[in-house]
Amino acid sequence: MEADELARFLKRYTRQAHHRVDQHPRLKPLMQAELDLADYGRALAALYPAVNWLEHWVAKALEAFELAYPLVPRGPLLAADLIALGLAPAPTPPPQAEAMPASKACALGALYVLEGSRLGGDMIAHHVHQRLGNDAPMGFFTAPHPLGDGFWQAFWRFAAAECPPREWASMGNAAQQTFETFNAMLSLAPRG
């Protein structure tokens, strides 16, 4: 099935860039055994500007290429989690005057990064709940997807239908660039 082939291709193509985000010093505490509420709050504060940038960018790209994919921003949930922890969400820098993605494949590459973050969010939510119980607000990590539990498979079918194999490398390049920008934004976030 083409959707499965695309999934294998893109995961392999972006493995290193994805790993750099997962292992970013600002996010790494989320999966450590000694996680406390202060660590959790600092990680959420670092995520906030990057998530808002990515959601804005993907929404713009989906609109530009008339891609009918259900996107429900989780940035407001992340802000609510921060506020519940007694932290003020840092203002998100205005989006750079970036050019729109060059193609539908590039827009789908950015969407891959955003949708994949929900899978990571499930793992993080499980770990955080084990470590911090109900003390940690997790609206951002536990928000349901409009497509339900099967959203990841639905994403791959959608991406394969919209992106022919000859465009997969473009999708991969855009996903890598999205990971790199996200990583850079994590590094720029104010330290808590």
Automatic annotation (TrEMBL):
InterPro entries: Haem_Oase-like, Haem_Oase-like_multi-hlx. One of its GO terms (biological process) is heme oxidation. Pfam families: Heme_oxygenase (PF01126). It comes from the Bacteria. GO terms for molecular function: heme oxygenase (decyclizing) activity. This is Biliverdin-producing heme oxygenase. It comes from Vreelandella salicampi. The lineage of its organism: Bacteria, Pseudomonadati, Pseudomonadota, Gammaproteobacteria, Oceanospirillales.
